[in-house]
Backbone:
Protein backbone atom coordinates (compact mmCIF):
# COMPACT_ATOMS: atom_id res chain seq x y z
CA UNK A 1 0.00 0.00 0.00
CA UNK A 2 1.27 3.48 -0.88
CA UNK A 3 2.59 5.43 2.10
CA UNK A 4 0.59 8.42 3.30
CA UNK A 5 1.96 11.73 2.04
CA UNK A 6 3.14 14.16 4.70
CA UNK A 7 4.12 17.79 4.36
CA UNK A 8 7.55 19.28 4.96
CA UNK A 9 8.67 21.67 7.66
CA UNK A 10 9.25 25.24 6.48
CA UNK A 11 11.61 27.67 8.15
CA UNK A 12 10.25 31.11 7.33
CA UNK A 13 7.12 33.27 7.36
CA UNK A 14 3.99 33.00 5.23
CA UNK A 15 1.10 35.51 5.45
CA UNK A 16 -1.67 32.93 4.92
CA UNK A 17 -1.78 29.99 7.32
CA UNK A 18 -3.72 28.06 9.94
CA UNK A 19 -2.28 28.11 13.45
CA UNK A 20 -3.43 25.15 15.51
CA UNK A 21 -3.04 23.62 18.94
CA UNK A 22 -4.28 20.52 20.69
CA UNK A 23 -4.58 19.20 24.22
CA UNK A 24 -4.04 15.52 24.95
CA UNK A 25 -4.34 12.85 27.63
CA UNK A 26 -0.54 12.62 27.80
CA UNK A 27 2.75 13.01 25.95
CA UNK A 28 2.95 9.78 23.93
CA UNK A 29 1.55 10.24 20.39
CA UNK A 30 1.47 6.46 19.89
CA UNK A 31 -0.87 5.91 22.83
CA UNK A 32 -2.37 9.10 24.20
CA UNK A 33 -5.44 10.77 22.72
CA UNK A 34 -6.44 14.26 21.60
CA UNK A 35 -9.05 15.84 23.91
CA UNK A 36 -9.18 19.34 22.40
CA UNK A 37 -8.40 20.61 18.92
CA UNK A 38 -8.47 24.27 17.91
CA UNK A 39 -7.32 26.31 14.92
CA UNK A 40 -7.27 29.89 13.67
CA UNK A 41 -7.35 30.79 9.98
CA UNK A 42 -5.12 33.73 9.03
CA UNK A 43 -5.04 35.65 5.74
CA UNK A 44 -2.52 38.40 5.14
CA UNK A 45 -1.48 38.22 8.77
CA UNK A 46 -5.05 38.86 10.00
CA UNK A 47 -7.35 36.38 11.78
CA UNK A 48 -10.35 35.48 9.64
CA UNK A 49 -12.01 32.50 11.35
CA UNK A 50 -11.67 30.08 14.26
CA UNK A 51 -12.35 26.39 14.88
CA UNK A 52 -12.44 24.70 18.27
CA UNK A 53 -13.84 21.50 19.69
CA UNK A 54 -13.40 19.26 22.67
CA UNK A 55 -12.89 15.58 21.80
CA UNK A 56 -14.18 12.52 23.61
CA UNK A 57 -11.13 10.21 23.85
CA UNK A 58 -13.17 7.16 24.74
CA UNK A 59 -11.17 6.69 27.91
CA UNK A 60 -10.75 8.47 31.26
CA UNK A 61 -8.55 11.56 31.21
CA UNK A 62 -5.61 11.13 33.62
CA UNK A 63 -5.66 13.54 36.58
CA UNK A 64 -2.22 14.83 35.58
CA UNK A 65 -3.51 15.93 32.18
CA UNK A 66 -6.56 17.61 33.71
CA UNK A 67 -4.28 19.44 36.13
CA UNK A 68 -2.44 21.01 33.18
CA UNK A 69 -5.26 21.85 30.77
CA UNK A 70 -8.31 21.85 33.04
CA UNK A 71 -10.24 19.45 30.80
CA UNK A 72 -12.22 16.79 32.67
CA UNK A 73 -14.17 13.65 31.79
CA UNK A 74 -17.42 15.52 32.40
CA UNK A 75 -16.46 18.22 29.90
CA UNK A 76 -15.83 15.75 27.05
CA UNK A 77 -18.69 13.35 27.81
CA UNK A 78 -20.91 14.79 25.05
CA UNK A 79 -18.05 15.93 22.78
CA UNK A 80 -17.55 14.46 19.29
CA UNK A 81 -15.26 11.51 18.74
CA UNK A 82 -11.80 12.00 17.21
CA UNK A 83 -12.91 11.07 13.67
CA UNK A 84 -15.61 13.75 13.68
CA UNK A 85 -13.28 16.34 15.19
CA UNK A 86 -10.57 15.60 12.62
CA UNK A 87 -13.06 15.84 9.76
CA UNK A 88 -13.93 19.32 10.95
CA UNK A 89 -10.29 20.32 11.38
CA UNK A 90 -9.22 19.04 7.95
CA UNK A 91 -12.13 20.83 6.29
CA UNK A 92 -11.25 24.03 8.16
CA UNK A 93 -7.50 23.93 7.41
CA UNK A 94 -7.74 22.81 3.78
CA UNK A 95 -4.37 23.02 2.04
CA UNK A 96 -3.06 25.89 4.14
CA UNK A 97 0.34 25.86 5.83
CA UNK A 98 -0.05 24.77 9.45
CA UNK A 99 1.65 26.78 12.22
CA UNK A 100 2.16 25.79 15.84
CA UNK A 101 4.61 25.74 18.73
CA UNK A 102 6.70 22.60 19.22
CA UNK A 103 4.58 20.81 16.63
CA UNK A 104 7.45 19.09 14.80
CA UNK A 105 8.13 16.70 17.68
CA UNK A 106 4.67 16.63 19.29
CA UNK A 107 1.44 17.92 17.73
CA UNK A 108 2.11 16.80 14.14
CA UNK A 109 2.60 13.23 15.33
CA UNK A 110 -0.85 13.27 16.95
CA UNK A 111 -2.39 14.77 13.80
CA UNK A 112 -0.73 12.25 11.47
CA UNK A 113 -1.95 9.37 13.59
CA UNK A 114 -5.46 10.78 13.79
CA UNK A 115 -5.71 11.45 10.04
CA UNK A 116 -4.10 8.22 8.88
CA UNK A 117 -5.41 5.67 11.37
CA UNK A 118 -8.80 7.17 12.18
CA UNK A 119 -9.81 8.54 8.76
CA UNK A 120 -7.33 6.79 6.43
CA UNK A 121 -6.52 10.20 4.99
CA UNK A 122 -3.32 12.03 4.17
CA UNK A 123 -2.15 15.22 5.85
CA UNK A 124 0.14 16.71 3.18
CA UNK A 125 0.14 20.27 4.55
CA UNK A 126 3.52 21.90 4.98
CA UNK A 127 4.04 23.35 8.44
CA UNK A 128 6.04 25.89 10.44
CA UNK A 129 7.17 25.21 13.99
CA UNK A 130 7.53 28.46 15.93
CA UNK A 131 9.76 26.85 18.58
CA UNK A 132 12.91 26.48 16.40
CA UNK A 133 11.94 29.70 14.63
CA UNK A 134 12.00 31.60 17.93
CA UNK A 135 15.31 30.01 18.91
CA UNK A 136 16.80 31.19 15.64
CA UNK A 137 15.42 34.72 15.72
CA UNK A 138 15.74 35.29 19.51
CA UNK A 139 18.85 33.25 20.44
CA UNK A 140 19.42 35.23 23.65
CA UNK A 141 15.99 34.51 25.12
CA UNK A 142 16.58 32.14 28.08
CA UNK A 143 13.50 29.99 27.41
CA UNK A 144 11.33 29.57 24.32
CA UNK A 145 8.05 28.20 25.61
CA UNK A 146 5.00 29.83 24.06
CA UNK A 147 4.28 31.70 27.29
CA UNK A 148 7.90 32.92 27.35
CA UNK A 149 7.49 34.35 23.84
CA UNK A 150 4.20 35.99 24.73
CA UNK A 151 5.72 37.56 27.83
CA UNK A 152 8.73 38.76 25.81
CA UNK A 153 6.47 40.52 23.30
CA UNK A 154 4.14 41.82 26.00
CA UNK A 155 1.12 39.67 25.07
CA UNK A 156 -1.35 38.28 27.58
CA UNK A 157 -0.90 34.63 28.58
CA UNK A 158 -4.38 34.32 30.07
CA UNK A 159 -5.98 30.99 29.23
CA UNK A 160 -2.68 29.26 28.44
CA UNK A 161 -2.89 25.48 28.00
CA UNK A 162 -6.34 25.62 26.43
CA UNK A 163 -6.11 25.04 22.72
CA UNK A 164 -7.88 28.09 21.29
CA UNK A 165 -6.20 30.50 23.71
CA UNK A 166 -2.82 29.05 22.75
CA UNK A 167 -3.69 29.43 19.05
CA UNK A 168 -4.48 33.11 19.47
CA UNK A 169 -1.34 33.63 21.55
CA UNK A 170 0.82 31.80 19.02
CA UNK A 171 -0.62 33.75 16.10
CA UNK A 172 0.44 37.03 17.71
CA UNK A 173 3.88 35.64 18.52
CA UNK A 174 4.35 34.31 14.97
CA UNK A 175 3.59 37.72 13.50
CA UNK A 176 5.91 39.38 16.02
CA UNK A 177 8.70 36.94 15.17
CA UNK A 178 8.25 37.79 11.50
CA UNK A 179 8.63 41.49 12.26
CA UNK A 180 11.82 40.77 14.23
CA UNK A 181 13.15 38.75 11.32
CA UNK A 182 12.39 41.56 8.86
CA UNK A 183 14.52 43.92 10.96
CA UNK A 184 17.54 41.60 10.75
CA UNK A 185 19.82 42.19 7.75
CA UNK A 186 19.65 39.29 5.32
CA UNK A 187 22.86 37.31 4.92
CA UNK A 188 23.25 34.86 2.07
CA UNK A 189 25.18 31.60 1.90
CA UNK A 190 28.07 31.89 -0.61
CA UNK A 191 27.73 28.17 -1.45
CA UNK A 192 24.03 27.71 -2.26
CA UNK A 193 22.51 31.18 -1.93
CA UNK A 194 20.29 30.22 1.00
CA UNK A 195 19.69 32.55 3.93
CA UNK A 196 22.21 32.47 6.77
CA UNK A 197 20.57 32.18 10.19
CA UNK A 198 22.04 32.74 13.63
CA UNK A 199 22.38 29.54 15.65
CA UNK A 200 23.87 28.46 18.96
CA UNK A 201 26.55 25.79 19.04
CA UNK A 202 28.83 24.13 21.53
CA UNK A 203 31.35 26.95 21.22
CA UNK A 204 28.91 29.85 20.96
CA UNK A 205 26.77 31.56 18.31
CA UNK A 206 27.48 31.13 14.61
CA UNK A 207 25.76 31.57 11.24
CA UNK A 208 24.60 28.47 9.42
CA UNK A 209 22.82 27.94 6.12
CA UNK A 210 19.02 27.65 6.31
CA UNK A 211 19.24 24.81 3.78
CA UNK A 212 21.00 22.55 6.29
CA UNK A 213 21.50 19.56 6.11
CA UNK A 214 21.69 19.80 2.30
CA UNK A 215 24.16 22.67 2.69
CA UNK A 216 26.54 22.66 5.67
CA UNK A 217 28.15 26.07 5.23
CA UNK A 218 28.88 27.94 8.48
CA UNK A 219 30.71 31.12 9.47
CA UNK A 220 31.51 32.83 12.74
CA UNK A 221 29.20 35.50 14.06
Residues:
Amino acid sequence: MEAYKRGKRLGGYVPDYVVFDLETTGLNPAWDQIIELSAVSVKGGEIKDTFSTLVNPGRPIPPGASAVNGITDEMVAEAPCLAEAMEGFLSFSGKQVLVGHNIHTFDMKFLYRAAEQTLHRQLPNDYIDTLPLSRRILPDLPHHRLTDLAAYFGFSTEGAHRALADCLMNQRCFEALARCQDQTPSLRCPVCGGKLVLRKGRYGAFYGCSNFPECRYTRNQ
